[in-house]
């Protein structure tokens, strides 16, 4: 199942109008808790302070969103904002080039930029230079931005840096003890603010906070530490896990088949078309007369001529007509082949099947051990077809009784039985259950895929390297072999490693899991 179908199943299950925890959602409202006071402080310092302003916080703390809100809340008639990104452009020349382009300055040099800032000040316009991902700036670029913030007699822009906390020691070293910058550190949400933030996100997607239980909200706040970007990620994972648990319980209680409404409608249309084609085929078969029988052309060629051509003496009686039934049908051949492992994300189970169940339904759970059908030998004797008697007008036989030479039957030697091929040696699991037992429960790994056949997991691990391992668990009463990648100290480290995986592995949407849960599943499977 593709990730697109999995997203549709997620939205359909909770009746969302869109993914409430995506980075950009329609009709998004700025959440004021812990951020609106900072926004007001930035506007105040830009007006009355002469210092470079730094907004600091960890990844997912909402720095980029605050920068967007600062630009959106400025008076466009009185402020010209220039947004600069330090990603891939961390040297002074690249930074000054971006600022010069934003101000339409021909020369990307500090004096020319400050001269343009002075000209805009004469028209009543201030200049805001906002640098995102500022932790990537080089020390030389930081020095240039500090000089830009100080300005000269012609003009002085207001410079804002949005960066992780790791920038602060470097900035202090570059400033050499001078008081030339001011730091505003973002604070995480409290549990009540986390609940209000989740409620606002869910209401924007057409649902309420009732979708999450109190325990789920408390767990989301604990795992995210109150940072909004991490709240989005953990909340989505929590909803997906709850959805999969509900569908797993429903399938264990009885047969369950659930698809989005548009897919069910498409299946109904296909079924109606198949039924219509079947009825039409039935009517055509009823209109066909008796099967065509190959007969000798009695009215055109004498029987004696036919026999003469074959080299035999004419018989006194006419040979019965020969009927070939099924001669134009193809001989069925065995299907032999090997499928490839299918990568699945937990969200891909959203249409009612787990990753392994879906792979089994398609016939490709891991590397499938498909037993070939027995080959059909052409030398196997076939029972003769007894033709129906055909009434033929009597033919006058010649005086001499002909002698028909019998044709000796063709005897075909029976084929020697084929020797069964020895099964390929199974790949040994990379460390197996002992490797998982040796891991600390608080560490994380990346779950890659699940397969119903152990040979599928073994083949994937063998093909991709020693960093891949697999373990056995029980899923819906059947064994499931789950492949994982690596061992990481934190969830963030696992997420960072995910981006280094090959594209074909990333396409399955791997996700981080802690070893405590995996060790529990291994123990339950024993």
Your description of this structure?
With 526 residues, the protein is α/β, with parallel strands linked by helices. Among the domains are: 3-19 and 190-253, no CATH class; 36-185, P-loop containing nucleotide triphosphate hydrolases (Rossmann fold); 432-525, 2-Layer Sandwich (Alpha-Beta Plaits). The chain is built from 18 helices and nine strands. The strands form two sheets. It has a five-stranded parallel beta sheet, sandwiched between helices. The longest helix is centred in the middle third of the chain and has 27 residues, at 261-287. The two termini are 30 Å apart. The model is unreliable at 284-345 and 347-431 (pLDDT under 50). Pfam families: AAA_22, SPOR. GO terms for molecular function: ATP hydrolysis activity; peptidoglycan binding.
CA-CA gap between termini: 30 Å
Shape: elongated
How do the SSEs run, as a string of H and E? HHEHEHHEHEHEHHHHHHHEHEEHHEH
Mean pLDDT: 75
Domain SPOR: 438-514
GO molecular function: ATP hydrolysis activity; peptidoglycan binding
Organism: Pseudomonas peli
Pfam family, one: SPOR
Describe how the helices and strands are arranged.
Elements: H1 3-14, H2 36-48, E1 52-56, H3 63-72, E2 79-85, H4 92-103, H5 110-122, E3 126-132, H6 139-150, E4 158-163, H7 167-175, E5 181-185, H8 191-204, H9 214-224, H10 228-253, H11 261-287, H12 303-310, H13 355-361, H14 432-437, E6 444-451, H15 454-464, E7 468-475, E8 478-488, H16 491-498, H17 503-506, E9 511-514, H18 515-525
Quickly list its features.
526 residues; Rossmann fold; five-stranded parallel β-sheet; four-stranded antiparallel β-sheet; P-loop_NTPase; SPOR-like_dom; ATP hydrolysis activity; peptidoglycan binding
């Amino acid at each position: 199942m593709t990730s697109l179908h999995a997203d549709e199943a997620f939205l359909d299950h909770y009746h969302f109008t869109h993914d409430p925890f995506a980075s950009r959602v329609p009709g998004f409202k700025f959440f004021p808790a812990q951020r609106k006071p900072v926004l007001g402080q930035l506007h105040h310092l830009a007006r009355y302070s002469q210092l470079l302003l730094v907004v600091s916080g960890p990844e997912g703390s909402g720095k980029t969103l605050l920068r967007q809100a600062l630009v959106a809340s400025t008076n466009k008639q009185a402020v010209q904002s220039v947004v600069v990104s330090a990603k891939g452009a961390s040297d002074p020349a690249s930074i000054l080039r971006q600022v010069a382009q934003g101000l339409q300055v021909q020369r990307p040099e500090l004096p020319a930029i400050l001269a343009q800032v002075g000209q805009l000040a004469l028209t009543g316009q201030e200049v805001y230079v906002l640098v995102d991902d500022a932790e990537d700036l080089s020390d030389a670029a930081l020095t240039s931005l500090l000089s830009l913030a100080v300005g000269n007699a012609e003009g002085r822009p207001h410079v804002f840096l949005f960066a992780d906390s790791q920038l602060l020691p470097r900035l202090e070293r570059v400033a050499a003890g001078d008081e030339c910058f001011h730091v505003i550190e973002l604070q995480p949400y409290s549990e009540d603010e986390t609940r209000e933030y989740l409620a606002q996100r869910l209401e924007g997607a057409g649902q309420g906070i009732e979708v999450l239980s109190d325990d789920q909200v408390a767990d989301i706040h604990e795992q995210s530490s109150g940072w909004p970007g991490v709240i989005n990620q953990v909340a989505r994972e929590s909803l997906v896990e709850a959805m999969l648990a509900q569908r797993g319980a429903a399938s264990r209680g009885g047969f369950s088949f659930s698809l989005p409404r548009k897919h069910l409608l498409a299946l109904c249309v296909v079924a109606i078309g198949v039924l219509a084609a079947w009825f039409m085929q039935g009517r055509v078969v009823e209109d066909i007369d008796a099967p065509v029988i190959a007969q000798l052309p009695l009215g055109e060629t004498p029987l004696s001529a036919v026999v003469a051509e074959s080299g035999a003496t004419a018989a006194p009686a006419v040979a019965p007509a020969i009927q070939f039934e099924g001669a134009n049908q193809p001989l069925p051949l065995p299907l032999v082949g090997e499928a490839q492992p299918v990568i699945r994300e937990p969200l891909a189970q959203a249409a009612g099947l787990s990753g392994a169940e879906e792979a089994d339904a398609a016939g490709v759970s891991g590397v499938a051990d498909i037993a070939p059908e027995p080959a059909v030998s052409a030398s196997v004797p076939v029972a003769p077809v007894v033709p129906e008697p055909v009434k033929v007008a009597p033919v006058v036989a010649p005086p001499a009784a002909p002698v028909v030479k019998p044709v000796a039957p063709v005897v075909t030697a029976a084929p020697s039985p084929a020797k069964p091929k020895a099964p390929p040696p199974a790949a040994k699991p990379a460390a197996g259950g002992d490797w998982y037992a040796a891991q600390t429960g608080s560490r994380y790994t990346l779950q890659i895929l699940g397969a119903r056949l152990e040979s599928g997991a073994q083949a994937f691990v063998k093909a991709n390297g020693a960093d891949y391992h697999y373990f056995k668990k029980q899923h819906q009463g059947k064994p499931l072999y789950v492949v994982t990648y690596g061992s990481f100290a934190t969830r963030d480290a696992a997420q960072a490693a995910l981006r280094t995986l090959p594209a074909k592995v990333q396409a399955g949407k791997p996700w981080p899991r802690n070893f405590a849960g995996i060790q529990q599943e291994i123990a339950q499977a024993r």
